[in-house]
Amino acid sequence: MKKPNLIFATIILISSLFITNTVNAQDHERKGPPPNGDRKGPPGGGHSPEQTKTLAEIGGYQIGEVATDFKLKNVDKKMFSLSDIKKAKGYIVVFTCNECPFAKMYEDRLIELHNKYAPKGYAVVAINPNVSEDNKKENFESMQKRAKEKKFPFVYLADEKHEVFPKYGAVRTPHVFLLDSERKVQYIGTIDDNARSAEAVKVKYLENAIDALIKGKKPAVNFTKAIGCPVKAI
Fold first, then answer.
1. Strand order in the sheet with 175-180
2. If DSSP codes are grouped into helix, strand and coil, which group holds residue 154?
3. pLDDT tens-digit profile of 150-203?
4. Using an 8 Å Cβ cutoff, are 128 and 156 in contact?
5. Which residues contact 149 (CB under 8 A, 6 or more apart)?
6. Sign of CA dihedral 220, 180, 154, 49
């Protein structure tokens, strides 16, 4: 009788260990990724939101180069060029779109920037490089809807032929190009140092660059890496 009892006890022990391991594995799956940001690799899908290429590698405008004017359709269906802004002292050209989470995070800040600096001669000129009639979330009608919902005080232009953003070298949304009155590029990059929280911003790169131009100076920082979603048309 001793041998059968030993076999029975062994079976019970093995079953107990199996059940314990299974419960622990299920519990681990329910908890999700490790706490305190210990997950390895980039967040949310495996793609870094930070621009990875240098300006030279991108092949667009470099600091100090003169940006050519363009003619693009605004959400009011009228064609718009930079030359349409009379007595401009500069231009805040921003490549953005409807659906990128980073673009959405910066919409209110762009509105504030325009309201603050347009009276000083620096208007925001927003351009959608992702516009496509095949994309219901990024077509012209959705741009009109977004502009109306957010009450954009600035133009929101459709780069329908996808010809303007490559000239500038825009690779993210949003991606900023600050031009002076002669359309010379004076700053390229991100708006500030915190996409997720306007209240937590410590360095306002774009505003600092604009303020420098207003004072007749060159921006102390004229290039930062853009933070946002990759331009889809690339």
1. 79-80, 72-74, 155-158, 122-128, 90-95, 175-180, 185-189
2. coil
3. 999 999 999 999 999 999 999 999 999 999 999 999 999 999 999 999 999 999
4. yes
5. none
6. negative
